[in-house]
Specification:
507 residues; Porin; 21 strands; signal
Length: 507
Amino acid sequence: MKTYKLLVTSLVFLSWVGKVSAQNEVDALRYSRQDFGGSARIQGMAGAQTALGADISTLSTNPAGLGLYRRSEVSFTPGISLSGTESSLNGRSSSTDQRNIINIPSLGIVFTKRKSDTDESDWRSGAFGIGLTRLNNFQNRFSYSGPVNQTESLVQSLGETAIANNRTEANLDQEYDDGIYSLEGLGYATYLIGVNKIPTEPNNPNSPLREEIYVESQGNVIQNETVSSKGAQNQWDFAYGASYRDKIYLGASVGLTTLRYNQKRIYREVDADPQTDFQDLTLTDEFTTTGSGVNLKVGIIARPIDAVRIGVSVQTPTFYTLRDQYTTSMSTTFGGTTPGNYDAQMTPGDYEYNLTTPLRANGGVAFFAGKHGFLSADVEYVNYGGARFDSNDGGDSFSGKNDIIKNTYQSALNFRVGGEYRYNIFRLRAGYALYGDPYKSSDYDRDKRYITAGVGIKQDNHFFDIAVVNAQYNSVYSPYSLVDNLQPVVTTKNTTNSVLFTLGFNF
């Protein structure tokens, strides 16, 4: 039962009904669950940097780290990512897919002003930084194909949805005339479902008629689908950090976040029996979400002794204003005694709304072995159930969906650990991160795991770093729902391998 609850949660990923259909708990999680970003140095250590400082990445995690800068710096980090998927339909058929992308995980500049050693004032230095960090990379694609019973097909789901929504011939005709807004409306327009009028008394042809939804008869069905997504979630940070007696470091930042997410799905059902009237259907759905948000962040790093640093940072919820634009169309082919091709399209959707993603809190500690290197460890707290949608007109149209978010997701801890070994001008790095499962009830493992490594060269006025990041996680998807919970279940193993390069200069 827990598994089906999870699947039902995933099903709204494919909801088309109503103009707010694209806003659901899946969207809330997508923009709340972020990867660690930053320079190749930090990513080579799996993002474990809350207590470190003196790296451009500190702008997006703990701005107190700016107080540890002794010189100004500019850096640029390009990268390339290869994402691969392996998907199984109902645990038996498997398909693989992959995408790659060139991106910019990080860039920025820090201006530092430090007092001379002869100056006895308590505030030793201050630094202002501007940086760009990629929080999420949405490039992905998965596909699957395999047989399903006709009682488990999309056509069957259309009929069940029409019955559940008490659809009649009159209101389906009205929807067709006024503009299609529902999935069952598409099915009606392309002759996949219809309405029979049946006497209430079978043996009396003059008795009053009642309406009954029917679905087009199918044989054995082969279904296949490709789901592709692209886009990114980036954040510009404007931060200031200062050093108090080179023991306490304080910082604050304003983050301006932008996001763009595009997803396109092409779903097909093909009847394996060429003698049936129904031959095939193609359902195409695409939506794009764009928007921007703002958050605030404060942090502190304490250095009780030279060998130990302790860091804490808190980021407020990010307040987004988003816009969704989406289209859905369907085409069908019939043969046998009633040949024909039919096409229909929903009225395009365009909707603006607000999203508040959860507060984030980080704690970390770093241990230094003189000039030989260090070990660093972080823990991050995120309450994914705290995400909230809000309409621009101040109404409560999202109250039900906010309840689903609260009941579906939980608080989770993200762990990161990494280290750096130093020999002369050379640096060797490695790290591991485990991001906790955000789902309350799930028999399926939704943790994210990262293994990282990197090397670098540090000289007086410039530095160069390379990092490799391997990320793995599982996902579950169902293209539609059925009342008996026999809908197809697609499980996907997602793997992303990234290579990053950072070139930086001190001045």
